Model the fold of this input.
Amino acid sequence: MSLARAKRRVGEQLGGEKLILADAAETKICVLLSISTLAGLALFSLTGAAWLDPAAGSSSPSSRFHEGREAWEANSSKTTSDEG
Done:
């Protein structure tokens, strides 16, 4: 996660550079998805429970929704502050 934080910090230092901030968000999502995939595989190999794979996969939509909502709110607050 430190790479995502570093990218976000650079984007903010460059005056809110949208491309770098989007890349930071994508890096964070990729890390979270990798962790959930590895956890699901590890738990499956330890227990043999087939339901663990879809359970680990269910974290994907929720993390993407959370990141999308954050991006939407950040964009909305910039738009309203630009208008005022």
The first helix runs from residue 2 to 13. The CA atoms of residues 1 and 54 lie 24 Å apart. The mean pLDDT is 79. The radius of gyration is 17 Å.
